[in-house]
């Protein structure tokens, strides 16, 4: 059911036994445009999607990866680690608005609409390593 919800566009999932403060943080984060999934749930969903898509032919859109700059590849990799814009900016010694600009360019070049799609794309095409 969780994978189905995400496939249909869910931007966050909380479990009924989650603490009230987790639910409140999830609502705040999703309403701010981010996603909310606990790590184990996200990894299960991603692994299922990767397994499902491994049977399909290679994605012809993968050629778009060649259009990414080295810095954009670094940003994609750090998004794959689950870092937020501010954390990425600190890691790369750039402004957080610059990270936002890079993400806008990356989304356009790879034809993805949000960070979650970017993570799946990055894992699928080797631009980021799945966290253990």
Task: Give an overview of the whole structure.
The protein has 2 domains: 1-56, no CATH class; 59-132, Arc Repressor Mutant, subunit A. Helix content is 59%, strand content 0%. It has 7 helices and no strands. It has helices at 2-7, 20-31, 39-54, 70-80, 85-92, 96-110, 115-124. The model has no long low-confidence stretch (mean pLDDT 83).
Question: What is the secondary structure topology, with strand pairs?
Answer:
Elements: H1 2-7, H2 20-31, H3 39-54, H4 70-80, H5 85-92, H6 96-110, H7 115-124
What's this model, at a glance?
The protein contains seven helices and no strands.
Properties at a glance:
mainly alpha; Arc Repressor Mutant, subunit A; 132 residues; 2 domains
Strand content: under 5%
Helix-strand pattern = HHHHHHH
Mean pLDDT reading: 83
Instruction: Kindly report how far apart the N and C termini lie.
Output: 23 Å
Taking pLDDT < 50 over at least 5 consecutive residues as the criterion, the unreliable ranges are none
CATH class of the largest domain: Mainly Alpha
Q: Largest sheet, if any? A: none
- What does the overall shape look like? globular
The oligomerization state is single chain
Q: What's the total count of β strands? A: 0
Number of helices: 7
Examine the secondary-structure arrangement and name the CATH architecture of the largest domain: Orthogonal Bundle
Question: Helix- and strand-based class?
Answer: mainly alpha
The number of domains: 2
Rounded to an integer in angstroms, the radius of gyration calculated over CA atoms is 15 Å
Q: What name does the CATH topology of the largest domain carry?
A: Arc Repressor Mutant, subunit A
Helical content class: 55-70%
